[in-house]
Structure formats: C-alpha cells, structure tokens
Write a structure and sequence with these properties.
Two copies of one chain form a homodimer.
Chain A (H helix, E strand, L loop, with lengths): L8 H14 L8 E2 L2 H8 L3 H13 L3 E4 L3 E4 L6 H9 L2 H22 L2 H14 L2 H4 L1 H18 L3 H20 L10 H13 L2 H24 L1
Antiparallel strand pairs in A: 1-3, 2-3
Helix pairs in contact in A: 1-3, 2-3, 5-8, 5-9, 5-10, 5-11, 6-8, 6-10, 8-9, 10-11
Chain A binds a DNA duplex through helix 3.
DNA sequence: TTAGGGAAAGTCATCTGATGATTTGATGAT
DNA sequence: ATCATCAAATCATCAGATGACTTTCCCTAA
C-alpha cells in the first residue's frame, strides 16, 4: 500500500479518507458521512477524526460547514503535483529549470527595461568568486542573478515556477550531491547580460543554452554512476 | 489582512501560528512552544490547537515528534507558490505553457521512442474537428495530444508541471473567456509530429513555436481590451 | 390552500479531563 | 567514564459534555 510507517492515527485516518475521495467513492460536492459515522468507519476517536478531516480541509480536498456537514471540494489536490515534481529525478528537475533559464533570457531580450540591465550588471558585479565570499554566499548570489534574468522576462508565472524549481533543486543538491556540480563561469554570465541587452532573443537564449549544457551533462554523469 | 471572516477558531489559530513562522520569529528546525503554552498564547483549547497544528503539518510547515515536540520544517509553504501562479495573468500562464510545449517538442525530437510517434499519430487521428465531436470533447483530445508530446520528451518533471498549467489555464478560460481562443489547426499538429519523428530538435521546436505565436497574440489582444 | 414562524433534529465547533506512548535528559551504580 | 534505569516533558488518543449553526418539517394563521 502506501507507507506502513504511519506514525499516528490521524495521518492514517486522513489517508483512508483520501482514498475514499481519490477512489471516486465520494464525488465532488457530495456530503461525506458525519463525524460519528467516521468514528465507527475508521475505528478512532472523534478528536482524531477531526484532525484527519482538518488535514484534508487544509489541503483543499474537503470543506466543513458547521451545522450542515463535510463536503468534498476536489478529488485531487493540486499540491500533490508539487510533491510529484519533487520526486522526479534531479536531472529532470534541472533540465526544466535550465529550460526556463533559456526561455526567460529569450523573453528578457525582447521585453527588458533599462533598469533590468542595470540590476543584472550590479548583481553580477557583487557575485565575486567562491574563494572570495565562500560557497554558501556565492551560490545564493548566483541564484539571485539567474532569478533576476527571469524577472526581466516580465512574466510573473515564470518567476513563481522558477523559484519553485530553484528551491526543490537546492534542497535535493544539499541532501545528495554536496557541491559536485561545476562552478558557473563569470565570463559566461556577462555574455548572458550583454545578449539580453542587445535585444536579440536567439542570441540570449543561445548564451544560456551553451552555459547550461555542460552542467546538465555533468549532472547526468553523476546520477547515472 | 487576510480574511476577517474566520469561520472557526482552528483556522484562525493556524493563521496565527503561520504568522509566527513566516514572520521569522520561529526559524527552521526550531522547536515551537508545547501544546499547553500554545493554548495560553492562542486562547483556545488543546483540541483546537492540535487541529491548527495538524493543518500546518499537512501543509508541510510543521512537523510533530511524539515525546519530543513540534518543529518548524519550512518557513514558506510550497503550495502557496501554485496559488500565486494561479493569480498571475492568463497571458503569462499561457506563455509558460507554450514555452513548455516548444521545449518539450525539442527534447522529444532527441529522445522519443518509436511507440511515442505511433501514439501521437493515433491521438491526432482521433482528434477530428469541433464540428464532428463537439467543443468539449475536442478540447479534451487536443490537450491529450499536447500532453503526449510532453511525455515523449521523457522528462517526468516537465509532464507534471505541464499538467498543472493545463489545469490552471482551462479553469481560467472556462471562467472568463468562454471559448474565444483560436481553434488549433490539424495541419500544424501533423507537422509537429513529423518534426519530432525526424529527430531534428530545432525543427520540432520551431513547428510548435509558429503554432503558438498567433494564439498568444490573440490572447494578448483579448486580455488588453 | 398557502405562506410564515418556530420548534426540533442533525451536524460541526469547542472545551475539559484523563490516560497512553515516546523521547530526552538526569541520576546513580559499576 | 560508561551504561542501565528512571523520571520528566511532550505529543497522541480517548471520552464526555456543551454550544452554535443549518436544515427540515410541522403547525398555525391568513
């Protein structure tokens, strides 16, 4: 089944309720059995049932109406999509983020404002090297630079999704690889800025693409071995 | 602030706890006050405190360890990112999805398996036209086709994120535009399949790009007016 | 006959008290 | 110094009672 490592009954009960929902036995808009019935069905106390329901409510699957009942709001929670993304292999995640980097640069070349370029140059100047500021700070500033490129694209949805991948990837790298990815090149970063400033979308995209290719290759090697 | 229409104390309490976390007063890894203390702080009963904590646990912000305490797992919930994406303008969302379409086709050209091509041809043949199968079914099959392209890219993370954008966009379109986007062209779809089958990544990407451009333009016009 | 009011049942919301299970740190003996 | 043991702290769970809100239905009055 799922995981046998259920640490508490409330989570276990929530899992059972979720199964009823995702399994289609309870449809959207339908009212589910009342608390007393759930107590019997799940074999736990009322407080535990309420905690389980509360968990599913906070996930958007259920909705409680005092005096009326508890209703199914959705059959699949959108947050689960993020969990599934997190569970895909690191190479796939990195590939998507790299893709976003490339296309963000393309859009930035077309739509950037003057202050965007100034900001990129400033961030690049502050970046320094690992030797100068330490790995932690350097990675942070590197991320800030690439994020600024995405912001320059003028697409808010892209910024959000880029942030998500950045967070997921840094988490994964922290817990597995521990700094074995190649260090980004300052020269290549400068070329990205110039390409965007030139207003040539293809040149901007290409500048990021050649930049990402070796990293992606290295990552593929590390993960396959 | 948020909503003053808090219907229940548990949600309200969860909101207060969330504020402590996102406000930085409780840092990641730190143990938060025990239940009895939270009862005093929040002015609610233990059961209500537990429901509030349970909600935040299910959202990934907190983590409870029996016998030890409750700890902060993250300072910002990842699910909120999706909400923010949903609140960005439809044009931005569409642009990101179109971008994913283009790059998925590029990867598919490089990595597709023979059965992927067969599947795409089959889906395209089943697609028919709006006049034949009705708008609802047609849109559904059109989505299935494009999803298959993304699947052919062999990148699971991309499939997940593509699904998310597809869901968000169809929701938004249903509630606002009501079918004013241009109808996709069967001829153009066939060209996408052939381009992927040819194994030429640039040709595949270009075939989708020219396909998306007019739709994006139309969408920009509709939303600006 | 119909519209309105109100009672009653059903349901979730909340509080209180008690007990069990687990972790953690201190205590004490070896 | 090390290890076993114990006690305190903490979350997990159960049980009972009361309040608040919604829905339904019946009864009354027009």
């Amino acid at each position: 089944m799922k995981q046998a490592i259920r640490t508490n009954l409330a989570d276990s009960a929530a899992g059972n309720l979720r199964a009823e929902i995702t399994g289609g036995r309870w449809t959207v808009g339908e009212r589910i059995p009342n608390e007393a019935t759930l107590v019997e069905m799940l074999g736990v106390s009322r407080g535990t049932v309420r905690e389980a329901v509360r968990a599913l409510v906070s996930q958007g699957l259920l909705e409680t109406r005092q005096g009326s009942g508890t209703y199914v709001r959705a059959t699949a929670d959108p947050a689960a999509a993020l969990d599934r993304v997190r569970q895909t292999c690191l190479r796939d995640q990195w590939e998507v983020r790299a893709l976003l980097d490339v296309e963000a640069a393309r859009l930035a070349a077309l739509r950037h404002k003057p202050e965007d370029i100034a900001r990129l140059r400033k961030l690049l100047a502050e970046r320094r090297t690992v030797a100068e500021v330490g790995r932690e700070v350097f990675v942070q500033r590197d991320i800030a630079f690439h994020r600024a490129v995405v912001q320059a694209s003028g697409n808010e949805a892209m910024v959000e999704i880029y942030d998500f991948f950045t967070a997921a990837i840094t988490d994964a790298i922290k817990s597995t690889l521990r700094g074995e990815v190649p260090e980004p090149d300052t020269q290549a970063h400068a070329e990205i800025v110039e390409a965007i400033a030139s207003g040539d979308p293809d040149r901007a995209a290409a500048s990021v693409r050649v930049f990402m290719a070796p990293i992606l290759l290295q990552l593929g090697r590390l993960l396959s071995s």
